[in-house]
Amino acid sequence: MIRFENVGLRYGVGREVLRDVSFEIAPNSFQFLSGPSGAGKTSLLQLMFLSLKPNRGLIRVFGKDTARLDSEELAELRRNIGFVFQEFRLLNHLTTFENVALPLRVQGLSEQDYRTDVKELLNWVGLGHRMHVYPPVMSGGEKQRAAIARALISRPKLLLADEPTGNVDPILARRLLRLFIELHRSGTSIVIATHDTGLMDQIQARRIVLNDGALFIYD
What we know:
- The protein is of the alpha/beta class.
- It is built from seven helices and ten strands.
- The chain has helices at residues 41-48, 71-78, 96-106, 111-124, 140-152, 170-185, 197-200, and strands at 2-9, 18-25, 30-34, 56-61, 64-65, 81-84, 158-162, 189-193, 206-211, 214-218.
């Protein structure tokens, strides 16, 4: 699904944030991405999401060499990848329903096309009763679940989540983890970036660890 070969990334003229990173993400797999603050977790997720380009090395996504693709081809690949941002990135002037539906609206679909799917997904994440409220009156946990639903609405083959439990209490964190596990069982590959060792200890899953720009894998 994703393959990195000797990938290096730096910002400006400083030292490399990531160096000689090589790994693969298999179809229908579940893994945690961990490491200390500043280790490069978010940068690695952005490379997988194709929103960053490496300075060197090879990245293949769904079998395609991303360096050979134009912007339209990259955007088409990205539609198969969902991203849950740490800071939610919900639009305050849109309701929960409208925020979750936004990726489908961008693709040109009408509300008649997606209304049922959005309602079913909001019910699945426990927000069926909050679909007409706006982000400013939502709790942190509700915003996180809305962000997860928005990332899932296009039915991605791969879901990337950047610290999805970082702003919620331990009880809600376990509930969110169960959502990710259910999604994985339905066939989606999952990568969760987290520093929460208690969360990672709850299930048996592959761990990708970044430390000082280098990557280590524990299956």
